[in-house]
Amino acid sequence: MANSDAFLVYPRQEFRARPVAERLQDYHEIYQHVEPGTLMQQGERCLDCGIPYCHVACPLGNYIPAWNSLVAEGDWQRACAQVHADNNFPEFTGHLCPALCEGSCTLGLNFAPVSIRMLELEAVERGFAEGWIKPQPPRFLTGKRVAVVGSGPAGLAAAQQLRRMGHEVTVFERDDRPGGLLRYGIPDFKLEKQILDRRLAQLEAEGVLFRTGVHVGVDLEAEQLCCNFDAVLLAGGAQQPRDLAVEGRELKGVHFAMEFLSQQNRRGAGDSIEPAYELTARGKRVLVIGGGDTGADCVGTSLRQGALAVTSFELLPQPPIQRSADNPWPEWPRVQRPSSSHEEGGERRYCVLTQRLLGNAQGHVEAVEAVEVRWVADDQGGKRMEVVPDSQFTLPCDLVLLAMGFTGPVRGGLLEQLGVGLNERGALATNAQKMTSRPGVFAAGDMSRGQSLVVWAIAEGRAAAEGINQFLAG
Ligand SMILES: Cc1cc2nc3c(=O)[nH]c(=O)nc-3n(C[C@H](O)[C@H](O)[C@H](O)COP(=O)(O)OP(=O)(O)OC[C@H]3O[C@@H](n4cnc5c(N)ncnc54)[C@H](O)[C@@H]3O)c2cc1C
Ligand code: SF4
Predict the structure, then answer these.
(1) pTM of the predicted model, to two decimals?
(2) Biggest alpha carbon distance in the chain?
(3) Is CB count within 10 Å lower at the N or C end of the chain?
(4) Considering only CA atoms, which residue is closest to atom 2 of ligand 2?
């Protein structure tokens, strides 16, 4: 490392966001590029500590100190190669990853961690700008055929790895465009879709075949895939939404978050929405139930659409600002991390339990009834929820978005036809090679892990590709 005291001289640099008033006018990327000199200083901050906990914490096993050092030296081309060494899509993680690595950075013990994700993103962006990222078609073909069901980050990572290993790979996707939740879930202001298209063009140039608009298990019998391909990878995600079992759930104006988010993605792609299905927050008082990534994305989208007011309910308490004593380094810090959307506006209420949705004479939602709760210690060393007496309140609302997570892969069709076994979390059970209970059928990403993160989906896709390659090699 060029300057071992750099962390004493240069403070950590955060991503610089565009002003809220400006970014609420559009759906473009929130963050701005950072100038190369600042990035090099940020790379210099790495201690090169010898035991890189950051590398262990990253699900991809990215060797982070190597790219920190290359950025510090201004060797962007090798830094770009390094961010690709264990990750097919560092621009997806550079935009979307919560940076599990930074929670374990050794500097984080006494100082602010290295801005690892920022360096990852800038290295890959420099690579695209300079034309260093090129298709890498296979040098030989094995004659083996693999079907990948689902084109989210897990399916795409597996497809690219398998193609580079020389197999013929066909990706089946039920949507009209590939990308999974990167396309029809995550808002454009978090990931502009040309970033996805740019990478898809690379996969196509390498020879990955895409068949969109094919719902396997509905339009195409799953058994047919098993007959026509040497191996099948199931990477269909975990998009079964958790429902809200309260009175008034059936009222008009109550929707799953994904209906709302995917429609905005389609508008952004230039699609027209049939007026009967048009779903917008414009001029409405929006209630978002659920405080995770999906809820935050509903807040940012509602504010951009021109909502009158946006309130989020979260059942759990507000996390602490700093690590608590039972959450020491190098564990992932369970602290408050306001999303860019929450910085943009809306009210966030913690420890709130929704009890009832109230409708008007036309059967449209007009208010919610809720109570406050508190979390108290139980006999098993955990926490249990208790309703706070006399805390009931009513809040007017015209649009309710349910963002309470996902219960697992969508059942029926594909999974039933293949008869694959599930694990205790309701996702597909797999062995160490990512093979399901059915020989030759593999699973990766949210479909085998439950709803998780992009970084895990890529890691699982890569692991499944290794498993399939071994299986095909006999
Ligand atoms: C709103 C939202 C915001 C998120 N934000 C973040 C974030 O900021 N950072 C982060 O790390 N993670 C985020 N996540 C989680 C992340 O998007 C997922 O963990 C990741 O996309 C999972 O990838 P996957 O490839 O396993 O599945 P998916 O991305 O869900 O893709 C699965 C694909 O399979 C297709 N499919 C399913 N069944 C079939 C079938 N039978 N036939 C054909 N095609 C099929 C689906 O149409 C879909 O395109 C977010 C999730 C949501 C919902
Ligand atoms: S993928 Fe995520 S955890 Fe891994 S290095 Fe990048 S930001 Fe860190």
Answers:
(1) 0.97
(2) 71
(3) C
(4) 99
